[in-house]
């Protein structure tokens, strides 16, 4: 694998880049990365398979949470109760 | 139309105030109820918590700047009510040690456990209830940050305000919460035979 060759070529650099990447990946997933962070992260995950896999898994977890957890319907009496309470108290 | 909003609002009649309250805050009841339910894991408690949130919001309506982030404001009130009134009586597992959480992410080492071997295929086979069970198994502070970020789509800055913590803490807590969630999901996938 390319990633393995890279590791052997420049192990120290690679590890610190991966550290930086793994600490900042959430910024990319959450749309919070600055332009320079985005550039670094996108380039790194394009070249580094383990980091790409981390990114892909975390991105999927986020999507699964959003798409699969069902919304609870608001109880039909709740809005009326709130309005009653507001009228009583204010 | 260049008048100070603050001044206009103080002169509102009760009817006008009610109309604005209704227009800005009531449409958010769905998100609030779901947040309350995910915190308390109980429908009656969620009901009470949302009622209390709206009563407090009405009481403090004057300190709310119109046109600003109504959703974040209400979520903050709800979260504080939960901590003050509900958390005490709930049987939550022991409080999370943030010292440990924070020092965990101040270290530069890549934690090996970050690369959980949870498979994306397993994840996608899971149904909503199973995913929710894994989320519910997290300590409430970790659960909260995931709800705010992933279910409600708040920004880090908004979460910092809702939770009264620095953005750096939002990041480290979110990071830790996601790793814990992946462990729960993986354990769940394992027992369901998804991870084979
Ligand atoms: Zn890497």
From TrEMBL, chain B:
UniProt record, GO biological process: DNA-templated transcription initiation
Superkingdom: Bacteria
InterPro entries linked: RNA_pol_sigma-70-like (IPR039425), RNA_pol_sigma-70_dom (IPR014284), RNA_pol_sigma70_r2 (IPR007627), RNA_pol_sigma70_r4_t2 (IPR013249), RNA_pol_sigma_r2 (IPR013325), RNA_pol_sigma_r3/r4-like (IPR013324), WH-like_DNA-bd_sf (IPR036388)
Annotated GO MF terms: DNA binding; sigma factor activity
One Pfam family cited in the UniProt record for this chain: Sigma70_r4_2
Keywords noted in UniProt: Sigma factor, Transcription, Transcription regulation
Protein name: RNA polymerase sigma factor RpoE
Protein family (similarity comment): Belongs to the sigma-70 factor family. ECF subfamily.
RNA polymerase sigma-70 region domain location: 30-91
Residue spans crossing the bilayer: none
Residue ranges of every copy of the RNA polymerase sigma factor 70 region 4 type domain listed in the record: 130-179
